[in-house]
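User: Predict the structure for this protein chain, please.
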Amino acid sequence: QAQLVESGGSLVQAGGSLRLSCAASGSIFSPNTMGWYRQAPGKQREVVALIRESDSTFYADSVKGRFTISRDNAKNTVDLQMNSLKPEDTADYYCNLRCHVTDRDYWGQGTQVTVSS
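Assistant: Here is the predicted structure, written as structure tokens:
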């Protein structure tokens, strides 16, 4: 079992920046992908950004050029730097760890990001 703990969510004005952090602990198998998802009120959870241990990344079109995902494999952490935030970025953000050997997903408890206009 792996446990994920997020931090960094807050209220910010449009155009501002936030940095989300996630620390994973427990049984973490390689290879794996870490990432961030978000869920706005009344909407389905959607992928925001993913990063493999090789540092290859994926970004949703809506955040390309504004968000940057990074990870520290030695510390099992993943961060999401969010710049030029928009009101439509308002959501609960969830950290995810996918272990490819076991094909299991682990989720954090979520951290709230609110962007005011």
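Residues 9 and 113 are 5 Å apart (CA to CA).
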